[in-house]
């Protein structure tokens, strides 16, 4: 299963590289900087752990596609599981693949979702710390929209909590349930704050970059910006629902500040760090720019950035969604063959059922 999921992850990356090319900027706070590497050929490599829970704000339906690519940069794209709303499993090709590869779809009706959610998490926990697993969840529950933002503001006013500017108030139930059921098998929660270039203040990404416009009409975001940080699960108050709700809400207030900084400055903030802007030898870094073509359009990106071998941070990594080697694109055909074989098995099974079940049209003849 992991091997074929890797092939599907390559398919997702290839589709993005060919049909929706864009610049990606990746930054992180001090807790993760040493894990973000810019390779000599310009690719991003993330030295993230093999088992973790990944949380993120949800702006577009394509958020999870870019985050799946992040798992590809860590060579763990065959071990990712994403928690998504049920309607997404009906997306052509990709939706079917997600169902086949064990992604978790929720109807957002807790009493209905809870039993199957627990069952799926028990399977993931059974791997202990030996089997790789990235579990991705969007605590806001859905992508940011005008209706969602109004509902969030209304809830904040009703409960007397601080409202957000660029996000919706996160739901604590699903994430806490994950942490409870995966206790002892995962050590870290990684948090990604995602921002897209080209969305005016007060507007919503879904009104500018739909799946159709991004992948089929050649209008992807001008850049995708990701800021990572991490939290030790041992430090999170999982056992107390009230304290956990306050914890996740505080994380979202911090993310809201990160996004406000992005809106004002066009980039995420850098922590104060004496190694910022220094080369391995400790001399002042000279930033080098390079002209590249992304989707047929010329862009200028920095060739510096990322964590050096000496542990110094060179600033944001500017790169693009792309494969490590062109021949990996051949994995696409593995996915196509797998789908064809499955269709063949289903067709034959249906034919057998028609033969043996009384009253079928075959026996009627």
Automatic annotation (TrEMBL):
Q: Does the keyword Transit peptide apply?
A: no
Please give the CDD domains that the UniProt record associates with this protein: LPLAT_LCLAT1-like
Domain Phospholipid/glycerol acyltransferase span(s) in chain numbering: 52-176
Q: Write out the transmembrane intervals.
A: 64-84, 90-108, 332-353
Q: Which keywords does the record carry?
A: Acyltransferase, Membrane, Transferase, Transmembrane, Transmembrane helix
* The keyword Transmembrane helix belongs to this UniProt entry's keyword annotation: yes
Which Pfam families would you find in this protein's record?
Acyltransf_C, Acyltransferase
- Similarity remark: Belongs to the 1-acyl-sn-glycerol-3-phosphate acyltransferase family.
Instruction: State what protein this is by name.
Output: Phospholipid/glycerol acyltransferase domain-containing protein
